[in-house]
Amino acid sequence: MTQMSEPDGTTHLENARNRAESQGRLPLAHRVHDAWGVVYRPLLLVSALLGGCVIPPSLSVGSEDAGVNSPPAILAVRTDQAEFVEPGPVLVDRGTTAGTISMTLLDTDLADTLYVRMFLDYTVTAPNPARVTCTAPPPMPASPQRTVSCDAGPLCPPTGSGPFNMTVVVFDREPLESGTPAYQAMPPGGLKTSLFYFLKCQEPTQ
Fold this sequence. Notes:
The chain has helices spanning about 10-25, 25-50, and strands at about 75-80, 90-95, 100-105, 115-120, 130-135, 145-150, 165-170, 190-200.
């Protein structure tokens, strides 16, 4: 142990004598102490009148935790008939009989609205706009898990059976109308997640 962690009693006595002698010999010490009394005694009087105590203001800078944004997650994707399994191929009817595509999503940022976009044959050099869009608002009561249903009717193009490269993307900020990458740019701080499937389109069964 050092002297600071385990003080010596003799040292304390010497310091005490030094302080007493200094106060007795130097009139400056009396003036300092008198000035201290002039400033501090009114504070004590005000404190007594208010029924409280004088608490000095904190000199530390507040450090409120603003939280960290977490990315959403896709737990499951399914149609009315079957659940999608990566990478597929998955089958979807063309047109109005396609039904809906339901997604189970997870986001620990309970107040976030999630934006779902489904792209076919999307590349950065030849970006196609999303063929399906839908929105998953925060659930009530608040929960990290939510379900959204999207109309699958627009997903398949008018012709061709594929397979098409289908990318399902979930954003925790609304995608911007302009920016890079096209149709997927977000405001600063936004996060996204995606799944990939091979999609085959089929004519409606009779």
